[in-house]
Amino acid sequence: MPSFLPDVHEVREDFNDYLGECLAVDAGLGVIIDRLEKAGELDNTLIVVSGDHGIPGFPRAKTNLYNLGTEVAMAVRWPEVISSGRTINDFVNLMDLAPTFLEAAGVEEPEDMTANSLLPLLKSNVSGRVDSERSFVVTGRERHNLAREGGLPYPQRAIRTDDFLYIYNFEPDRWPVGDPEGLDDPNTTPPPREEILTNYHSVYADIDKSPTKVWMIYNRAKKDVRPLFELGFGKRPQEELYDLRLDPDYLSNVAYEAEYTEIREDLNDQLMNLLIKQEDPRVVESPPRFEKAPYAGSVSEEWQAENTKQLWDYDPGSVPKTTK
User: Fold this and answer.
1) What pLDDT, on the 0 to 100 scale, is given for residue 322?
2) By C-alpha distance, which of 62, 63, 55, 90 is closest to 76?
3) Which of 89, 96, 178, 316 is deepest in the core (most CB within 10 A)?
4) 135: phi > 0 → left, psi -120 to 50 → alpha, else beta; which?
5) Contact 144, 217 (CB under 8 A)
6) For residues 307 and 150, is the Cβ–Cβ distance under 8 A?
7) Contact 212, 14 (CB under 8 A)
């Protein structure tokens, strides 16, 4: 269990419940594979097993750009094409699956598709790092839940390499996991446990409802819990840098330490240049369309009507071209 979580029974039980869900998925996958084998199609089928995000209901996990939020398992099986028994440590993105499936089916991918097929990696007989250019991955976050006043996002972009995780927080004055509704004060009485456990739109709404969330909110004033609570629920500086060689649980932000200045600047340059090249609206638009993005569905009853209309009627227009 990562060291940014309190080592108590309630949290361990919650974490183990998630691992139990993973075992259930694994059992279901076994049923599917058995059906394919009985149909005589197992070796002729490309099977890809992955997830869409990290563990939910925990701080510094799902809806965050830390490793526990963005890393997912990926296993691939296609015996007629892929040699077995290899582990590849190239950085890949789930977007790469679309061109992978198109290439496997013999379908030409669209010209505007920016992801890259994984088949060259999968067909290789090499273990470890296959493609030297796959030495990093870029991740991003805008809006998970309607967790902040006015439905505002918490915009982040990150670049992860073998040794470092660099995160750029575009709006550090906002609450990263949702408005605290006064709970940033350790003396404020929190809502009833049942409300936090059952209502997605309760306090700190960008952390999914869970026993861990309830426990940390109710114990946040304790001396040994407070630092972990601030790590998971508090505001963050504009730049975060973690040396994963020394700090695999990303507890110590070294972005503002002198010895890491060059590394921070290099990763920032690499990240921002990539975002500009891809015409990321967060970087090339002012204001970026993500701030007041179109939304399908009902909005919070607590918002004032005039603010709601102003928010959701926003027209982003065309993406400006960059000269960089």
Assistant:
1) 39
2) 90
3) 178
4) alpha
5) no
6) yes
7) yes
Is 164 within 8 Å of 242 (Cβ atoms)?
yes
For residue range 70-79, list pLDDT tens digits in order.
999 889 999 8
67 and 164 share one domain: no
| Cα 130 from Cα 89, distance rounded (Å) | 8
Note the pLDDT tens digit of each residue in 141-166: 999 888 998 889 999 999 999 999 99
Residues 6+ apart with CB under 8 A from 137: 91, 92, 93, 159, 160
In a domain, 232, yes or no: yes
Please count the structural domains in the chain.
Answer: 2
Q: What is the pLDDT of residue 316?
A: 43
Write out the DSSP string of 204-216. STTS---HHHHHH
Peptide bond into 287 cis (omega under 30): yes
Residue-number span of the structural domain to which 54 is assigned: 9-90+92-129
Instruction: Assess whether 148 and 202 both reside in one domain.
Output: yes
Helix (H, G, I), strand (E, B) or coil at 218: helix
At residue 286, φ and ψ (nearest 5 deg) are -145, 110
**Is-above-0.85 flag for pTM?**
yes
Distance CA 35, CA 16 (A): 29
Q: Which residue in 41, 91, 96 sits closest to 67, CA to CA?
A: 91
